[in-house]
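USER: Please consider what follows.
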Amino acid sequence: MERKMQSGDRPSGRLFEDLSKLAGGALGAASGLRQDVETLVRTQAAKLVNELDLVKREEFEAVREMASKARLEQELLVARLEKLEIQLSELQEKTESQ
């Protein structure tokens, strides 16, 4: 005749083994599910980035560098033009005074 467990009795080792296997299986399934979700999110994010026609960081940095160089060249040309305009004005004043 089987005896029912009472509050002071300890469960058998088999029960702990079964619970341990169940918990291990659940953790393994949760880990696999986590990896599946991460893969899905990465795929959807990449698809969204492609659909939005966003530029990559390397391309952005290259264009930013080109714009910076163009701005510097433009500033140098403005300064050169101002210098040439002053020289032209001085020459015109000299020829008018003669």
Remarks:
- Residues 20 and 26 are 10 Å apart (CA to CA).
- The mean pLDDT is 83.
- The chain has two domains: 12-54, 55-98.
